[in-house]
Amino acid sequence: MQDIHDLKPLMSVDFPWLSFIIALLVMIGGLVLLTWLVAKLLKRRKAKPTDEPAAKVVRPEGSPRKDALKAIKALKKQSLPPERFYVQLEKIVKTFLADLHHEPLRSATSQEFILYLQMHAHIPLDELDIAPIFQRGQQAKFAAEQISIQDMSTDLERAEAFINRYTSKG
Questions:
Q1: CB 72 within 8 A of CB 156
Q2: Which of these, 164, 65, 72, 63, lies nearest to 123 by C-alpha position?
Q3: d(CA 72, CA 77)
Q4: Are 114 and 107 contacting, i.e. CB atoms less than 8 angstroms apart?
Q5: From CA 5, how far away is CA 165, in angstroms rounded?
Q6: Rounded to whole angstroms, how far apart are CA atoms 156 and 75?
Q7: d(Cα 31, Cα 23) in Å, to the nearest integer?
Q8: What tens digit of pLDDT does each residue of 6-42 get?
Q9: pLDDT tens-digit readout, 45-73
């Protein structure tokens, strides 16, 4: 049996560190350049204007009014707690104006909605009598106050009058 000391000593292998680092930097630079070119081409492709205008959903004239009045009639028949009632009523009024003006009002807060009406309504806001609906809606949703059925029916009538007045030709 041979003794362990008969093994050859380890060989020293010099690793080409400089060549390795240069090659690594060139590959990283190439990847960055390739990523930048792909991103630039994708942006250019998205920004390219089309010859055709974007298709708009065309609703028949008077449709937002009819839809809103139909939704109010359906809400009259339902027996909802005040919180859900006012959520539905506000949704009906916001959808009516969003469809009428083609504006994104469905997700607007009550304050943003009132501000929009102050700036864009063709009838002064105090004549429209819509603000009390939103104030009572805030009370129903966030305050501990109990809203009476009489107040809810009054607000339904106010919303209906608002829709009729807002779409009247005079």
A1: yes
A2: 164
A3: 9
A4: no
A5: 107
A6: 8
A7: 12
A8: 767 777 778 788 889 999 999 999 999 999 999 999 8
A9: 776 555 555 545 454 555 788 888 888 88
